[in-house]
Amino acid sequence: MSNVEDFLTQGEEQEIVEAIRIAEKNTSGEIRVHIEKHTDENILARAAEMFHILKMDNTKQENGVLIYIAVEDKTFAIYGGKGIDEEVPKGFWDSTRDVMQACFKKGAFKQGIIEGVLKAGEELQQHFPWNHNDKNELSDEISKG
Question: Which segments within 8-109 are labelled E, that is strand?
Fold first, then answer.
């Protein structure tokens, strides 16, 4: 099996999906997690590319967030859509990154992703609160490449 398949158990993946559902209850933002074995590209450039491939730039408010992880490279990026970038200050994702990084350094990958997802939801709620017309525009499932 590849490192991607071994990175999380099926149960851990379901816990992350549940965290995404919880995080999205309070925001119109859309959160996804994508896991790959390796990238030769700059991590942020690859996250942006995956954001587009996953059609995350097609949301109504352009407020999708991708947590991209390259397992073999031991690196990750948080990439927000155009609608988010226009609304939030520089360094907006730093606290989310820091929460995830602290867990990852301890080898707690599932917990790091869950905490990152929940923190992203909290951050998004400030600028993109949920309203009764919101619908889930993107899959909550983890994608893999």
Answer: 30-36, 64-70, 75-80
